[in-house]
Design goal:
271 residues; alpha/beta; D-Maltodextrin-Binding Protein, domain 2; six-stranded mixed sheet; 13 strands; 20% strand; Lipoprotein; lipoprotein
C-alpha cells in the first residue's frame, strides 16, 4: 500500500516536496552533498546541467530538491532541510525576511526571467479596453514588480517613491480603470482564459510554453533590473566552500552557453 501511495504521489509531481519535508537535515560536512531547493524551470534544469556536467570537476556533490511553488524553498532552507536554494530575487527574499523574521543571505545572482504581460484576447497593449481585468502575482514583491512593468508601459502611473512591494494604493493614475486580480504565481498562466491580461513570472511562463521574448505583449528589460534570481543560503553558511563552488559554476561560461542555447532569450544571464 505504501508503495502505491508513493507512486501515485510521484505521478502528480508531489514526491519531491514530500521527500524534502520528511528528509533529514542538510549536512554542514564539506564532503557531504550540497542540498539545493529549486523551482523546476529553469532553475532545476540549470542546476541539473551543473550537477551532471560540471560539479564533479570541482569536487562538488549536489542533491536537488524540487518544489513547484515560491514558499516551500525558503521554508526548507530556514528549517535546514537544505543548505541553499536557487529560485528567488532579492526583493522576494526581503519580503520573506520581513514576514518570517528569519534572516537569509543572497550570495550571488545567476539569471533573470523577464516578467511579461500576456493575453489570449488582445494583440497589443494599445487594444486594452476600459475596465480590463489584469491578473498579477499575489506575493508582495512580484505584485509590485508587475505594477512597475504596467507603469513602464503606460497603463498606470505609480507614485514616484513607490517601493518594490508597490500595491494598488501606490497607483496615482489608472486611465483605463484596470481591475486587478491577484493570484498565486503558479496559477497565472491558467488565468489567461478568464482575464484580459496576465502578468506572468518567467519560470511559469516557460513551463506553460510561453516565451517572454516572443509571446509577451511587454516584458522587462535586463538593464538595471533588480530581479535576478540567485543562490540564497543562511548567513552562517554563506562562506560554505560548497556554496562558493556552486556559485562559481552557475556564473561560469558553460552555464551561460547552456542558458542561451536552451532558452533562446526567454532566460537571460545576470550581468
Amino acid at each position: 500500500m505504501l508503495r502505491k501511495i508513493t507512486v501515485a504521489l510521484a505521478s502528480v509531481g508531489l514526491l519531491a516536496g514530500l521527500t524534502a519535508c520528511g528528509s533529514s537535515a542538510a549536512s554542514d560536512d564539506p564532503d557531504a552533498p550540497l542540498k539545493v531547493a529549486v523551482n523546476p524551470v529553469p532553475h532545476g534544469d540549470i542546476l541539473s546541467y551543473v550537477k551532471d556536467n560540471l560539479a564533479a570537476k570541482e569536487g562538488l556533490k549536489i542533491e536537488i530538491v524540487t518544489f513547484s511553488d515560491y514558499q516551500q524553498p525558503n521554508t526548507a532552507l530556514t528549517e535546514k532541510q537544505v543548505t541553499a536554494n536557487y529560485f528567488q530575487h532579492v526583493p522576494f527574499m526581503e519580503e520573506f525576511e520581513k514576514k518570517s523574521g528569519k534572516k537569509l543571505s543572497f550570495v550571488a545572482p545567476v539569471h533573470l526571467e523577464p516578467l511579461g504581460v500576456y493575453s489570449k484576447k488582445l494583440k497589443s497593449l494599445q487594444d486594452v479596453p476600459k475596465g480590463a481585468t489584469v491578473a498579477v502575482p499575489n506575493d508582495p514583491a512580484n505584485e509590485g514588480r508587475s505594477l512597475k512593468l504596467l507603469a513602464a508601459n503606460g497603463l498606470i502611473t505609480l507614485k514616484p517613491d513607490a517601493p518594490a512591494s508597490a500595491t494598488e494604493r501606490d497607483i496615482t493614475s489608472n486611465p483605463k480603470g484596470l481591475k486587478f486580480k491577484p493570484l498565486k504565481a503558479a496559477q497565472l498562466p491558467r488565468s489567461l482564459e478568464d482575464v484580459d491580461l496576465s502578468v506572468i513570472n518567467g519560470n511559469y511562463a516557460i513551463e506553460a510554453g510561453l516565451a517572454p521574448n516572443k509571446d509577451a505583449l511587454a516584458a522587462e528589460k535586463p538593464e538595471g533590473n533588480p530581479y535576478a534570481n540567485g543562490v540564497v543560503t543562511l548567513p552562517e553558511n554563506k562562506d560554505d566552500e560548497r556554496v562558493k563552488k556552486l556559485v562559481k559554476l552557475l556564473q561560469g561560461p558553460e552555464v551561460k552557453k547552456f542558458v542561451e542555447d536552451k532558452y533562446k532569450g526567454s532566460v537571460l544571464i545576470a550581468s
